[in-house]
Specification:
- This protein has 132 residues and is mainly beta.
- The chain has one domain: ApaG domain (Immunoglobulin-like).
- It contains no helices and nine strands.
- The strands form two sheets. Strands 4, 5, 6, 8 and 9 form a five-stranded antiparallel β-sheet that branches.
- A hairpin with a 2-residue loop joins strand 1 and strand 2.
- It holds the Pfam family DUF525.
Amino acid sequence: MEQLFQHAAITDGVTVRVAVNFLPEQSHVSAGKWFWVYHIRIENHSRETIQLLTRHWRITDGNGAVNHVDGEGVVGEQPILPPEGTHDYVSGCPLTTPHGSMEGHYTFRKESGEALRVAIPFFPLAAPATAD
């Protein structure tokens, strides 16, 4: 089944698409824990092969608290994308509030050695209303 990507950003021919879903089975609302899973697809529509080196996330919870997360690659990989290549991965985000948001950027290296900063689109994290 094809994932419905709800959010996208394009930087210098590189498209980042995001689909996000709340996971009630991984959440513990009574304990103040909510969990979302997000699927990212990176599409290289540029003319150069690029390699993803690092990621930077800005995660904001429903109280406005911001957490910055930096790391190498994505889910343990530093994928190489040739022209028209794609890379998909799935990860998750826990929060202590029923809503928040994520956004950020990836740093790629082009064949020329030049760094390329690619935007990850802003996307909301929103749990459905509950009766509690």
